[in-house]
């Protein structure tokens, strides 16, 4: 059974996508759920807090997908690039309400949320740049940064049609089309005579967001997201409470995502997770604990 927090998130995204963020009140969300407005404040202190949680939750899930994809050793870099398009299409289709809300609105986000969104974007750019460099080698070395932006822009541009225009796009054909355009650009640029637009300093800026353990942090956040999904699936021991587990994972994720996470908070949340009775959840909690403790000691 879906927990109350997840029900609130779904109702909020529905309202935000239909009425806009500014046009939606907490009362509107409560009305969709058929509950008292005050009940929502038990889970979220404000509409802004709810929005921040939704965006962070989805960004964690999206990055977890790409981290898992890029870790696959059975696929060549070119195949992984193609899978990036297919994965993006699937996520856009499965989460149209969220992407519609995100793309249509201009949110007044605070510095922490802005940095979170920028880091997620840069991590995506770094992963794409790495795949393009491996796929095309020396032919594209000088232009890999430009090709990264072009690839991302083509992918996002076509997928935006899925959200805004409700266009049906064949994902396999789209992936082949984008890769073919990339091939053509590499062939043309390798002839020389054109200077790249983006210099190496920009790439260093992207890398700065994922250096110093950030990649390890992304993997830990991906594991937390996997736990969230397992809890939401409802396959829990009768002694375990889904809402309490989700709240524990929320606190753990938020603390881990800080520049200087507090060990006492992390260890406290891990202790709560390890107390669960569901074997699969406990197994993953122990794996997560090992990764977090390694990070704290590094």
Question: How does this model look, in words?
Answer:
With 298 residues, the protein is an all-alpha fold. The protein folds into three domains: 1-45, Homeodomain-like (Arc Repressor Mutant, subunit A); 46-208, Tetracycline Repressor, domain 2 (Orthogonal Bundle), CATH 1.10.357.10; 215-297. Helices cover 74% and strands 0% of the residues. It is built from 14 helices and no strands. Pfam families: TetR_N. InterPro entries: DNA-bd_HTH_TetR-type_CS, Homeodomain-like_sf, HTH-type_Tx_Regulator, HTH_TetR, Tet_transcr_reg_TetR-rel_C_sf. This is AcrR family transcriptional regulator.
Biggest sheet statistics: none
Q: CATH top level of the largest domain? A: Mainly Alpha
Unreliable spans are none
* Secondary structure: helix percent: over 70%
CATH H-level homologous superfamily name of the largest domain = Tetracycline Repressor, domain 2
Query: What is the oligomer described by this structure?
Result: single chain
Going by helix content, strand content and strand pairing, the class is: mainly alpha
State the separation between the terminal residues, measured CA to CA: 39 Å
What is the overall number of helices? Answer: 14
Rg estimate, integer Å: 21 Å
Number of E-type strands: 0
CATH architecture of the largest domain: Orthogonal Bundle
Element string (H = helix, E = strand): HHHHHHHHHHHHHH
Average pLDDT value?
Answer: 83
- Whole-number count of domains: 3
Residue share in β-strands: under 5%
CATH topology of the largest domain, by name, is Tetracycline Repressor, domain 2
- What general form does the structure show? globular
């Amino acid at each position: 059974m879906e927990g109350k927090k997840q029900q609130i998130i779904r109702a909020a995204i529905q309202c935000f996508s239909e009425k806009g963020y500014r046009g939606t009140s907490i009362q509107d969300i409560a009305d969709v759920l058929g509950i008292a407005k005050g009940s929502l404040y038990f889970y979220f202190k404000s509409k802004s807090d709810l929005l921040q949680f939704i965006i962070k939750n989805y960004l964690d899930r999206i990055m977890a997908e790409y981290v898992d994809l890029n870790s696959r050793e059975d696929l060549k870099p070119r195949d992984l690039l193609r899978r990036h398009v297919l994965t993006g299409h699937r996520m856009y289709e499965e989460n149209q309400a969220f992407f519609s809300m995100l793309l249509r609105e201009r949110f007044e986000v605070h510095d922490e949320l802005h940095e979170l969104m920028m880091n997620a974007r840069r991590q995506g750019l770094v992963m794409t740049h790495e795949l393009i460099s491996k796929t095309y080698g020396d032919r594209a070395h000088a232009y890999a940064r430009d090709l990264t932006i072009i690839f991302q822009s083509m992918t996002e541009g076509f997928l935006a049609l899925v959200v805004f225009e409700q266009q049906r796009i064949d994902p396999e054909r789209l992936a082949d089309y984008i890769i073919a355009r990339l091939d053509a650009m590499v062939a043309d640029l390798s002839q020389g005579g054109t200077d790249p637009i983006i210099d190496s300093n920009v790439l260093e800026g992207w890398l700065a967001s994922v250096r110093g353990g950030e990649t390890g942090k992304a993997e830990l956040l991906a594991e937390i997201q996997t736990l969230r999904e397992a809890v939401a699936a409802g396959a829990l021991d009768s002694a375990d409470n889904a809402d309490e587990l989700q709240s524990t994972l929320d606190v753990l994720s938020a603390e881990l995502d800080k520049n200087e996470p507090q060990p006492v908070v992390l260890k406290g949340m891990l202790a709560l997770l390890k107390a669960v009775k569901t074997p699969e959840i406990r197994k993953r909690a122990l794996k997560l604990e090992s990764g977090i403790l390694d990070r704290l000691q590094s």
